[in-house]
């Protein structure tokens, strides 16, 4: 059976889908990805669909499921490289892929993930900082 | 009333014998209908060639225009109508150029001085052939004009939808003119392709040049925005004039969470603020 490879780049897992997403492939990918996220402790997942000519409701649901699984494991998911023709078809069909974040290409996707991570950490730090500021007296 | 082989052969001889006079009369007639928009020499040349075409067709015993021997005549006629169509002559002016051939032939026959009943019969038969030729000209004229119109429509589509880069990572589409389904499709494809090519995460759709926004136009714009979002780019709509804003609200069009700005400058400022916020 065909499998989708999962590549680790820094703190990000890159999944490039280049084959038709059939039920079996999709399920296998979900399983593999969950394993890899836990094994590597990565906080970001990029799914590259620039090689996909057709994105139907099934693929859309699969992507949403993967995003959901990743979220539970504390990893953000970004879908990158959707072709214009695919986007137009999805809009014409009235599918808007809810719950999926997108970026134009892998580079912008990595930027997006880095930014989100940075913001999250920032907020984590800001929280206690702000709470403590009034308590700590100025020297 | 089809031309018999005999009649055709007789006319071929007449056309051959009186070619000079015939072409002169014909050219005069045509020149008077075109009111000097084509030079006499040009007409003379065209008519000389057409006369040869008619003569060849008749010498080949052509019953009508579809025959083998009339092939050259057909080619000449379509050539004539296509040049006339491109030069901006009307359909009537083009067809009359061919009809005038009948008058020229009549004048030639008058000059022969041996007219009788059979000549009349011959003439009517020839007349049918000329009518057919003129109709053929008319047809090709219309065809050429339709091709012209189709070409122009395509050119208009090409011209009217430029996608310009405003800033690093920001592209704009200034929409000018009415947005119908065909144009909306072209705009959408062009914009999305540019987003991919330039990897710009922001697009501004400026509708200053759109005369009216109805539900259909709004629908097209919304589709474009949603498609761009699916690809990971954000769209801002700008250039909404006061009347347009009123129409949008009156029609109950919902732009949802899509950013709308009054001017292109506002939209650009907004995008730059967004990028600087993200890139801190």
Automatic annotation (TrEMBL), chain A:
Q: Where is this region: Disordered?
A: 119-139
Q: STAS domain spans which residues?
A: 1-113
User: Source species, please?
Assistant: Paractinoplanes aksuensis
What SUPFAM superfamilies does the database record attribute to this sequence? SpoIIaa-like
Task: Output this protein's name.
Answer: STAS domain-containing protein
- Regions of biased composition (Acidic residues) lie at 119-129
Q: Which Pfam families match?
A: STAS (PF01740)
Automatic annotation (TrEMBL), chain B:
Pfam families given for it?
Answer: RsbRD_N (PF14361), STAS (PF01740)
Phosphoprotein in keyword set: yes
Query: What CDD domains would the database entry show?
Result: STAS_RsbR_RsbS_like
In terms of PROSITE patterns, this protein maps to: STAS
Keywords from UniProt, A to Z, are: Phosphoprotein
Q: Which residues form the STAS domain?
A: 160-271
Membrane spanning residue stretches: none
Among PANTHER family, the record links this protein to: RSBT ANTAGONIST PROTEIN RSBS-RELATED, RSBT CO-ANTAGONIST PROTEIN RSBRC
Query: By what name is this protein known?
Result: STAS domain-containing protein
Record organism: Paractinoplanes aksuensis
């Amino acid at each position: 059976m065909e499998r989708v490879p999962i590549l680790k780049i820094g703190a990000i897992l890159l999944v490039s889908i280049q084959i038709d997403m059939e039920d079996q492939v999709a399920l296998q990918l979900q399983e593999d990805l969950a394993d890899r996220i836990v094994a590597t402790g990565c906080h970001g997942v990029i799914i590259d669909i620039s090689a996909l000519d057709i994105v139907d409701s099934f693929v859309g649901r699969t992507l949403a499921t993967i995003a959901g699984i990743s979220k539970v494991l504390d990893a953000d998911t970004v879908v990158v490289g959707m072709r214009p023709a695919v986007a137009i078809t999805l809009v014409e069909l009235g599918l808007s892929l809810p719950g999926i974040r997108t970026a134009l290409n892998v580079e912008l996707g990595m930027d997006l993930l880095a930014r989100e991570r940075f913001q999250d950490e920032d907020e984590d730090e800001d929280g206690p900082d702000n709470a403590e500021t009034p308590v700590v007296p100025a020297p | 009333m089809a031309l018999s082989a005999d009649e055709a052969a007789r006319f071929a001889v007449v056309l051959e014998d009186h070619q000079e006079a015939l072409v002169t009369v014909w050219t005069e007639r045509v020149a008077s209908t075109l009111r000097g928009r084509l030079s006499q020499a040009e007409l003379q040349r065209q008519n000389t060639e057409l006369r040869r075409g008619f003569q060849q067709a008749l010498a080949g015993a052509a019953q009508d225009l579809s025959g083998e021997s009339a092939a050259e005549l057909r080619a000449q006629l379509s050539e004539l109508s296509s040049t006339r169509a491109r030069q901006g002559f009307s359909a009537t002016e083009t067809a009359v150029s061919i009809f005038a051939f009948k008058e020229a032939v009549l004048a030639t026959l008058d000059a022969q001085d041996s007219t009788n009943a059979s000549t009349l019969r011959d003439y009517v038969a020839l007349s049918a052939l000329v009518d057919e030729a003129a109709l053929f000209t008319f047809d090709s004229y219309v065809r050429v004009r339709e091709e012209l119109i189709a070409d122009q429509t395509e050119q208009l589509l090409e011209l009217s939808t430029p996608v310009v880069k405003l800033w690093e990572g920001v592209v704009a589409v200034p929409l000018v003119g009415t947005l119908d389904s065909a144009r909306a499709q072209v705009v959408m494809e062009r914009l999305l392709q540019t987003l991919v090519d330039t990897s710009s995460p922001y697009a501004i759709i400026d509708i200053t040049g759109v005369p009216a926004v109805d539900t259909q136009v709004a629908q097209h714009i919304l589709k474009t925005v949603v498609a761009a979002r699916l690809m990971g780019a954000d769209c801002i709509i700008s250039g909404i004039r006061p009347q347009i804003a009123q129409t949008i609200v009156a029609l109950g069009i919902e732009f949802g969470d899509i950013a709308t700005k009054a001017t292109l400058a506002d939209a650009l400022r907004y995008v730059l603020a967004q990028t600087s916020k993200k890139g801190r």
